[in-house]
Amino acid sequence: MLQRLNSSACAVIELLVFSGTPNPLIHLNHTDAHTLCAIVGSTPQPPPPCRVVGFTGWKLGDGTVWHGVDSIDAVLLRQPSFHALGRTVREHVQTEIELKGRGCAHSDEETPSCPQHEKAPADVCGVARCDSSACPCGCECGNATDPGVCYVPAHASARPRALTCASVPIIGPDDPSKVRFAPQADDGGCFVAKQSENNCYDYATDIVTNTFAQPGRGSGVCPKSQRPCVKNACDDVRHAAESDGLAWVGTQLPSALPTEGHYVSLHIWPQTNFHWLRMDADLRWSHKPGGSPVRNVDNNGQVILDPSKADVSPWSEHCGYMHVLPSNVSIY
Question: In terms of domain of life, where is this protein from (predicted)?
């Protein structure tokens, strides 16, 4: 449904492109903001792109995301605040726009939004699986016997989720069999309820901070207001993460769960940004691109079995794997 927007909703636009640090903001003058709102008000909103990490569109002040509309791209690409961005970011965005989001045809695997505290009957949970997608609303994913089964949780929290998620840090399990791709249940559902305040590092370490955590910041490598904390290079981010309590494993893909804790994978967009993925109990990998939803697929819509081979471009440099014991890690 088309709707008219106040120009204030088009004055500051979030460029959805980063994972480790907050996204850049594009500032429009009154004339361009009015023009942009007029275009949006007369254009049907397109479907989301297939890409899950990297440039996925422009987020307006009303929360809508626009991608693949030539007239909108033209207004935003000419803004001085866009041209002030680093060359690699500008080139990535312009390339994706030229490719029209790659024109991919696979279905979007984004976890559906569930009403808080929704309960699902056993017959709904029992016939579903979470091997490659989320369980139905109200179900939880995986148990010690079968990490891919959906089931009705034995106990539901009576406290409002928003109150729970404000009490940070919320630390995930040290038991690797309980680290699952189940965004609605993971850490009390706080990666959903506080989606915009937690990034790939929060999700990979399985610790909700509501701070868009940066490697090294929790252990005092840099001031708590600094983003990023260290240079975007493999060695720098690795050493900062080690300072936070993570342990280097190497470059060989882990083939089994650790005795305690879980594995994470570090990726670098050279000199630009960092990204982390997390190994879950089923030996598959999931991730949370910046303030976007938790995902279990790469940019090609493929379930991630080997992060070094997954398409998480433009994070083109795979640094290797680290081990996380959530109860022994300090991030901020």
Answer: Eukaryota
- Give the containing element (helix H, strand E) for 13: strand 12-16
- Cα distance between the two ends of the chain: 41
Query: How wide is the angle at C-alpha 309 spanned by C-alphas 317 and 135, nearest 5°?
Result: 115
Q: What is the DSSP string of 140-179?
A: EE--SS-TTBEE--S----S-HHHHHTS--EE--S-GGG-
Stated pTM of the model: 0.84
Average pLDDT over residues 93-101: 88
pLDDT digits (tens, 9 = 90+) for 312-330: 999 999 999 999 999 999 9
**Peptide bond before 169: cis, by omega within 30 degrees of 0?**
yes
State how beta strands 273-279 and 285-286 pair: antiparallel
The closest of 219, 175, 184 to 201, measured between CA atoms, is 219
Residue owning tokens 């060359």: 87
